[in-house]
Request: fold
Amino acid sequence: MTTFHETWAEWLEANRAMWDERVPIHAASEYYDQDAFRKGKDEIRDFEAAEVGDVTGKRLLHLQCHMGQDTLSWARRGAAKVVGLDFSEAAIEVARGLAAEVGIGPDRAEFVVSDVYEAASAVPDPDYDIVYTGIGALDWLPDVRRWAEVAASLVAPGGFLYLSEFHPVTHVLGWGEDRTIEYDYFDASPQVTDEPGTYTDFKAETVNNLSFERLHTLGDIVSAIAAAGLRVEFLHEFDMTMFQRYAGLERGEDGCYRAPKGQPRLPLMFSLKASRAA
Reply:
């Protein structure tokens, strides 16, 4: 019988090699636009800012932070201390460099290399006012229940977990304009990909292309967080996404992509807030 640890060890090795190779491509890309970030660009989406609220004086932990631009944006918004965690050492090196370049010192922004399942023993503090997970994180994990247990354990009394993600239903649809159902929403088996390129440059010539993902249903995610002892305060679904997930989506003035006016809409993203009692 394959155990969680055996499964995750295989996923971890392949996925980390894949992400490590793509970090310099992402750092140089127009998608991440690090020059604009250095000049003050805020990476936090409007709906996230509204739902998380004022972070002034708060301690915030960002799980699976990639290159740290969202993490540092929370620091710019007034967080007393932000901690970013990611399993890619290459990504964390970029994050630390960005922090230094924009003048946010290690007393206010700290970045840690760790597997997210080991976060509790890797981060500098036992708990945080806000535990944040940004867009495109959960699909890379084999076990969402274990993730929820780790994330919940790091929420301080009176604090909360905030999650913004691509909606799971988007993963069952093909990439064509007609948005036909091509994949099984309830299929929990690993989705294995072995193709070059990355979402910032589909034509990039890459070597480490093997990766593992898993579709976690919305029910799985919400139930895992509730079972971990947090109180779900809201679950919001959105008709927009951050990139052209399907050929028929149109980019609006806010930079988000939606179905053309008059066409039936699907949930493309969701957000969730879950708190721990004071």
Summary: The longest strand covers residues 155-166. The helical segments are 4-27, 34-38, 46-52, 69-76, 89-101, 119-122, 144-153, 218-227. The chain has a mean pLDDT of 94. The domain at 4-275 is CATH 3.40.50.150 (Rossmann fold).
